Amino acid sequence: MKRIFTLLLALLCLGALAACGDSKEEAKPENAQAPAGETAQAPAGDLLVGFVYVSPVGDAGYSYAHDLGRKAVEDMEGVTTMYQEAVPEGPDSERVITNMARKGAKLIFTTSYGYMDPTIRVAKEFPETSFMHCSGFKTADNAGNYFGRIYQARYLTGMAAGAMTKKNIIGYVAAFPIPEVIRGANAFALGVRAVNPEAQVRVVWTKTWYDPTTEKEAAKSLLDVGADVIAQHQDSPGPQEAAQERGAYSIGYNSDMSQFAPKSHLTAAIWNWSVFYKDQVEKKLNGTWKPESLWWGMETGIVDIAPFGPMVPEEVKAQVETAKQQIIAKELVVFAGPVKNQKGEVVIPEGQTATDEQLLGMNWFVQGVVGSTE
């Protein structure tokens, strides 16, 4: 009898535990935001849209800007989103993209250059899912690519930096020597020299997208050689912090980074991904989405500059704003000839402008940039 009683007691405890587990699951809100890497409970009929990020969404930089766009999509009727942050480029990204497709995502945005080949491979396995890869160039029957002409915003921030430097040495902390980053540094330098032909832009490569410590140290190395303005193509605000600690000015990237260096932050080249993501999701919802190679300009609102810091004089603000309106009206083209390379050779002749093919394959620095493209 004692054994029977013990067995019954054990069964009752197991039953109670199971009941507790069931009630906890039922209490979970149906539309609760999923943790990073998990799928939200999508209402029946909702379009599930996935986003893959190379760095943390709290980086205040690149992935943060993309995630603001995702949140705008989440607010659309009939749409639920999921995301995975800090996904390394390579095999890990292919696994994450595959898992999203398996979980039912019908539109997936992969937001880093190194996700290009994994995106195309997964697209072939899931023909009913649409894929868009950021900053790449490959397409498939169900996969396109996209980017914004952030180099237009970089030109404007270069103008601000060129107007504000006293030593005519501007530091540029850059991630990887790929066309996207080289193109941005060149546009920045062209903006600098449009207002200050004597200034030079010194580039240092970190070979990382997101490493706050490395990026901050790279900025310090530029400050050590006399730079009094620090710009960046990096995801963290580390370079901004280094500039403020040394009493230099700074130019941010991806988002308004003024909160990290309020005494130094002149402005920033920023993204507004919401206008693009909402457009693509709307097309997926109404059945008009197709795999395209899209490169939107400043006139669409996808790229812009952050508000100026209080240290920027009104005349500098006005000069930059005039150039901005000219870019929007397509009266000012950033890469319009004559444009010379570091050796002083004319690469884009007078009367000509760089083609998109030339911009997408850019592997040389313009005159005024100090550094190697390797």
UniProtKB/TrEMBL annotation:
The keyword Signal applies. PROSITE patterns: PROKAR_LIPOPROTEIN. InterPro entries: ABC-Purine-Binding (IPR052910), PnrA-like (IPR003760). Residues 1-18 form the signal peptide. It comes from Desulfocurvibacter africanus subsp. africanus str. Walvis Bay. This is Basic membrane lipoprotein. It comes from the Bacteria. Residues 49-333 form the ABC transporter substrate-binding protein PnrA-like domain. Pfam families: Bmp (PF02608). Transmembrane segments: none annotated. Keywords: Lipoprotein, Signal. GO terms for cellular component: plasma membrane.
